[in-house]
C-alpha cells in the first residue's frame, strides 16, 4: 500500500491537524505499515492491529503527552509508538539497543508508565488522576486502556474498587476482543458478553439526548444530567446489574471499536465528564489481517511471515524440543498414571504447553485467567484436599504470586509443584519478562524445594520426582526456548532430592552451575581446557534447596578457586547460597559468581543479553582464565 498520510505524521500534534475524514485512511496505512514491518521484524501483531482505530482516536481527541494514556501490558501499542515520533525507529523494535518491546517512560514522553505485566493500568491511571487533582491540574485527562484478558486480573479489580471510592476523573477504556492470548476464560468474559445486550439501550439514550440538545430543547449541562439520570433510571427500572455503574463508575458502551468516526465522537463527548468512567469497546483481535483474525492465538506473536500470503516462516528441520513442550508432554504422561495430578495455568496454556494436557484431560486442567496469585492459592486449596497440582507460571509473572506461595502453600507444607517457565533471560521481551528473581526470591522460604534441570531428561525426572508422595512444595525452573536433546523422551526415574551431580572431574578449579546454563558452562570449560591447558571440574548443583552440602564440602576440600554460574540475579541467588555455605563452615575459597547484575537487563537476543552480563561463552572462558591467574 502506498502510504500518503502516515509519513507526514511525526507527532500526535500532526495527527490532530488532519480533517476527520482522513482518519479512516490513516488507520489503513498504519495497519499496512505494522503488518509489513512485523513480517520481517517479529513482535506482537494481533493485539496491535485490534486497537489501531482506538489509538488514532485517543491521540486525535486527547492532548497527549499532557494528557496521559496508560497502556495495559503494552503489547498492543505499536500504532501508539509509530504515531508518537518513533516510526523511523520502528524497524529496531525489540532489537538490542532499539525500541523497547513495551511502552517505557525512558523511551518517550508519550509512554506514561511501566508496561509488560498485565492489569496494572487502572491502578496507575488512578494514581495519576488523583495526582492531577492534588496538583490542581483539572484539565489533564488520564486514560487507562485495558483488555478484557487483563481485566480478569485481581489488580484490575482492586483498581476499580478504589476508583469508585476516590474522587478522580479517570477514563477507563475496556478493549474487549473476547480473547486473551488463548481464549478468554472465566466469569468476567461471560459478564462482558452479556453486557452486549444493553448496547441498543445505550445507543438510543445517547441519540435522544443529542437530538434534544441539537433542537435547542436542552443545553450541554442538562444533557449530561439527563444521561446521568437515565443511567440511574435504567438501573432502577431494569434492575440490570452493571458492575461498573454499580460501583459509581459511569459506563458507556459497548460500541464498535473499529468505527473511528463514532469513537472520536464518543470520546469527545465523554472526555470532560467529571468522575470515573468506563468506555467499553468491542474489537477484533488481528483486525484487518485475515490470518490474524482467523487464528488470533498463533498471530498474537507469530514470528516472521509472508505479509502477502500470511504464510508463517517456520523452520521445519528437526530440532530438540522446547522446554515448555517437554513440560507439556511429561505432565500428560504423569497425569495418565497419577489420577491426583491436575494442571493449572494463569492464562498461558499455549505458552507453557499445558494445552497438550488440556486437549486430552480438559476436566483436570485449569486456565484461571491472568491471575498468578490466585493460581498459587487455588493450587494450595487443591493440594490441601489431596490433589497433586502442577501450577505452571512464567517466572517473571510468578512475582505476582510471591505471598500466595509463602502463605497459602509453603506455610502449610502443601505438595504443589510450581513449574516456572521462562526462567532466566528471555530475549526480546526484555526486563519485564526476564525470569531473573525467582531463585533469590524463593530461596529464603521454608519448606520449599527448588530445582533446575541441566537438560530435558532432568526436567522429566524432576517432574516425576516432584509428584511422588512426601515431596512437599517443589519448584522446578527452566528457560524459554529449546533444549539440546533430540532424544528427550527418557524413562521417568526418581532423582535424589538435594543431590547434585559431578559432570566432570578436574584439578585446577571448580565450576558449579545450576540449570541448563550448565550446558554452556560445559562448552566453555572444554574450550578453556583446550586453549589454556588447564583441568577444570564441573558440578551441576541441580537443587538450590536443599543444597548439596556433601558435594560442597568435597569441592571445598579439593579446590581453592570456584566459579558459580546461574541464569538469575547474583544477589541472593545460587552463588550467594554457595558462599553462605562456605562462610558458615569457616573456609571460603576464592569464589567468583557469574549471574545477572543488580540492574535491569535490557532487551535483545538471548545471546546479546548474555554477552552484556558476562554469561556468554567468551566471558565464561575469560573468567576461568582470570581466576586461574589470580
Ligand atoms: C501478569 C501477566 N500475566 C500474563 C501475561 C501474559 N500476557 C500478555 S498479553 C496477555 C493477554 C492479554 O489479553 P487482553 O488484555 O485481553 O489483551 P489482548 O491481547 O486481547 O489485546 C497475556 C496473558 C502478562 N503480560 N502479565
Ligand atoms: C506480552 C506478553 O506478555 C506475552 O505475549 C509474552 O510476550 C509471551 O512470551 P512468550 O513468547 O515467551 O510466550
Ligand atoms: Mg483481549
UniProtKB/TrEMBL annotation:
Q: Which residues bind thiamine diphosphate?
A: 75, 116-118, 149-150, 177, 289, 372
Molecular function GO terms recorded: 1-deoxy-D-xylulose-5-phosphate synthase activity; magnesium ion binding; thiamine pyrophosphate binding
Would you kindly state one Gene Ontology biological process term found in this protein's UniProt entry? terpenoid biosynthetic process
Metabolic or biological pathway, per its Swiss-Prot or TrEMBL entry: Metabolic intermediate biosynthesis; 1-deoxy-D-xylulose 5-phosphate biosynthesis; 1-deoxy-D-xylulose 5-phosphate from D-glyceraldehyde 3-phosphate and pyruvate: step 1/1
Report domain Transketolase-like pyrimidine-binding positions.
Answer: 321-486
Its UniProt entry gives the catalysed reaction(s) as: D-glyceraldehyde 3-phosphate + pyruvate + H(+) = 1-deoxy-D-xylulose 5-phosphate + CO2
Tell me the protein's name: 1-deoxy-D-xylulose-5-phosphate synthase
Q: Which gene encodes it?
A: dxs
Amino acid at each position: 500500500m502506498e502510504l500518503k498520510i502516515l509519513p507526514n505524521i511525526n507527532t500526535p500534534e500532526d495527527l490532530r491537524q488532519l480533517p476527520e475524514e482522513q482518519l479512516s485512511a490513516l488507520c489503513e496505512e498504519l495497519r499496512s505499515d505494522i503488518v509489513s514491518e512485523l513480517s520481517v521484524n517479529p513482535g506482537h501483531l494481533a493485539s496491535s492491529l485490534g486497537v489501531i482505530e482506538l489509538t488514532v482516536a485517543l491521540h486525535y481527541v486527547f492532548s497527549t503527552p499532557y494528557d496521559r494514556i496508560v497502556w495495559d501490558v503494552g503489547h498492543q501499542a505499536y500504532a501508539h509508538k509509530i504515531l508518537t515520533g518513533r516510526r523511523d525507529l520502528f524497524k529496531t523494535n525489540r532489537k538490542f539497543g532499539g525500541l523497547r518491546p513495551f511502552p517505557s517512560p525512558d523511551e518517550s514522553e508519550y509512554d506514561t508508565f511501566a508496561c509488560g505485566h498485565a492489569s496494572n493500568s487502572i491502578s496507575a491511571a488512578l494514581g495519576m488522576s488523583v495526582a492531577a487533582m492534588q496538583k490542581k491540574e483539572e484539565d489533564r485527562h488520564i486514560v487507562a486502556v485495558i483488555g478484557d484478558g487483563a481485566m480478569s486480573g485481581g489488580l484490575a479489580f482492586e483498581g476499580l474498587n478504589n476508583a469508585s471510592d476516590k474522587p478522580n476523573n479517570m477514563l477507563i477504556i475496556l478493549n474487549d476482543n473476547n480473547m486473551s492470548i488463548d481464549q478468554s476464560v472465566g466469569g468476567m468474559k461471560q459478564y462482558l458478553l452479556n453486557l452486549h445486550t444493553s448496547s441498543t439501550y445505550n445507543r438510543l439514550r445517547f441519540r435522544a439526548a443529542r437530538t434534544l440538545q441539537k433542537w435547542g430543547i436542552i443545553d450541554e449541562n442538562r444533557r449530561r444530567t439527563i444521561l446521568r439520570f437515565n443511567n440511574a433510571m435504567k438501573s432502577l427500572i431494569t434492575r440490570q446489574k452493571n458492575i461498573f455503574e454499580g460501583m459509581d463508575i459511569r459506563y458507556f458502551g459497548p460500541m464498535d471499536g473499529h468505527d473511528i468516526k463514532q469513537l472520536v465522537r464518543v470520546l469527545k463527548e465523554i472526555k470532560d465528564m467529571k468522575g470515573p468512567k468506563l468506555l467499553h469497546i468491542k474489537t477484533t483481535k488481528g483486525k484487518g489481517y485475515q490470518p490474524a483474525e482467523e487464528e488470533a492465538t498463533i498471530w498474537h506473536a507469530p514470528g516472521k511471515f509472508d505479509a502477502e500470503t500470511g504464510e508463517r516462516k517456520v523452520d521445519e528441520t528437526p530440532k530438540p524440543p522446547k522446554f515448555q513442550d517437554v513440560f507439556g508432554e511429561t505432565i500428560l504422561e504423569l497425569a495418565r498414571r497419577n489420577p491426583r495430578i491436575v494442571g493449572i495455568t494463569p492464562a498461558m496454556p499455549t505458552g507453557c504447553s499445558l494445552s497438550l494436557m488440556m486437549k486430552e484431560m480438559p476436566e483436570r486442567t485449569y486456565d484461571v485467567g491472568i491471575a498468578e496469585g490466585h493460581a498459587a492459592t487455588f493450587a494450595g486449596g487443591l493440594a490441601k484436599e489431596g490433589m497433586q497440582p502442577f501450577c505452571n507460571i512464567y517466572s517473571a509473572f510468578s512475582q505476582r504470586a510471591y505471598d500466595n506461595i509463602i502463605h497459602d502453600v509453603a506455610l502449610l507444607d502443601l505438595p504443589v509443584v510450581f513449574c516456572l517457565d521462562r526462567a532466566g533471560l528471555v530475549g526480546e521481551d526484555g526486563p519485564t519478562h526476564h525470569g531473573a528473581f525467582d531463585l533469590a526470591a524463593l530461596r529464603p522460604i521454608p519448606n520449599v524445594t527448588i530445582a533446575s534441570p541441566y537438560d530435558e531428561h532432568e526436567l522429566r525426572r524432576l517432574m516425576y520426582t516432584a509428584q511422588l508422595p512426601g515431596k512437599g512444595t517443589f519448584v522446578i525452573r527452566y528457560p524459554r526456548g529449546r533444549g539440546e536433546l533430540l532424544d528427550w523422551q527418557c524413562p521417568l526415574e526418581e532423582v535424589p532430592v538435594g543431590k547434585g551431580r559431578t559432570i566432570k572431574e578436574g584439578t585446577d578449579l571448580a565450576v558449579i552451575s545450576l540449570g541448563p546454563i550448565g550446558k554452556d558452562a560445559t562448552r566453555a570449560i572444554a574450550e578453556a581446557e583446550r586453549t589454556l591447558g588447564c583441568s577444570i571440574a564441573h558440578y551441576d548443583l541441580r537443587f538450590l534447596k536443599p543444597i548439596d552440602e556433601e558435594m560442597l564440602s568435597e569441592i571445598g576440600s579439593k579446590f581453592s578457586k570456584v566459579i558459580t554460574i546461574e541464569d538469575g540475579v547474583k544477589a541472593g541467588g545460587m552463588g550467594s547460597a554457595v558462599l553462605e555455605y562456605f562462610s558458615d563452615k569457616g573456609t571460603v575459597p576464592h569464589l567468583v559468581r557469574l549471574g545477572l547484575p543488580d540492574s535491569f537487563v535490557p532487551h535483545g537476543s538471548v545471546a546479546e543479553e548474555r554477552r552484556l552480563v558476562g554469561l556468554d561463552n567468551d566471558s565464561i572462558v575469560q573468567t576461568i582464565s582470570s581466576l586461574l591467574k589470580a
